[in-house]
Amino acid sequence: MNAGWPVELREGDVTLRPIRARDQRSWQEVSRRNRDWLRRWEATVPPAPVGRSSAARPTYRQMVRYLRGEASAGRMLPFVVLYQGRLVGQLTVGGITWGSMCSANVGYWIDEEVAGRGIMPTAVALAVEHCFRALGLHRIEVCVRPENGPSRRVAEKLGFREEGMRPRYLHIDGDWRDHLVYALTVEEVPEGMLNRWRAIRSGRSQSN
Predict the structure, then answer these.
(1) Over the stretch 166-201, which tens digit does the pLDDT of each residue have?
(2) 8 A C-beta contact, residue 105 and residue 140
(3) Burial class of 127 by CB neighbour count within 10 A (0 to 12, 13 to 18, 19+)
(4) Domain boundaries, the chain
(5) ∠ at Cα 187 (183, 193), nearest 5°?
(6) CATH: 3.40.630.30, 3.30.160.250, 3.20.20.105, 3.50.50.60. Which one for 9-207?
(7) 79 near 72, Cβ under 8 Å?
(8) pTM for the full predicted model
(9) Residue 59: DSSP 8-state
């Protein structure tokens, strides 16, 4: 079982909490409205081999059931992102691995309507802080398509290191796509991820 789950994390107007079945209406409304904005970055299922039928896209409830099962098994932390109480995106800590690795990866998306307000860097900082301090993970990765400037800026703002390219890493928008790997270990943020982000935001506001 996942000792760090369920959990609700909050910083200012930004909240991370577990995704729920009753989020369906809000989640689908945001997803539909942002379909064109998100399509280039969303994972897709590759075509099935000849003679086999392609897997159907899961329903919202099937997705939530799967995510909650993975969370209970300690392999995932599936959050929705709330801004001023409204659902505006999703953040998932996935691929949680224990043993000699103690690592995970973070993926995220946000409503275009509120992009650029520091919401997603705050959400990622909350998640990384929880992974390092509460769960005891050692390394967090963020893998981003090179063309996805906004997602790259989230990782770069928080001080993730760019480690290189993974060719044809994930099936995105109908084809296998290269991804840049950003990473951070707990030793690189002795001050804590949230304290780092607060200092960055404070420095930015003082310089304006």
Answers:
(1) 999 999 988 999 999 999 999 999 999 999 999 999
(2) yes
(3) buried
(4) 9-207
(5) 70
(6) 3.40.630.30
(7) no
(8) 0.93
(9) P
